[in-house]
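The methods section describes the discrete structure representation at length, but only in general terms. The central task, working out the structure tokens from the amino acid sequence alone, is never made concrete. Nothing conveys this as quickly as seeing an actual entry. For illustration, here is how one protein appears when written out as sequence plus structure tokens:
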Amino acid sequence: MALSNPLVYIDTNVFVNKIILPLISPATITQNQTNLLRQTDNFLHDLVVGVYRGVTSTFTRTEYRGVMKRELYFNKQVWYRN
């Protein structure tokens, strides 16, 4: 018996893509990055409306925090404008 809304694992990249990609300047964003953001948005929308049931792990949450700290540190001239 299959469930009507399958359980899917949400990887760190989904969260990072949703936060980082919209911050890229439209002048420098690539077509691949635009497509990736659209796919991420579509996937998250499907989660919200119940097409899928999402699950993530403590490891993913920890990895996400590490990636975001690194991005903020190495790109602080972009993220923190004076």
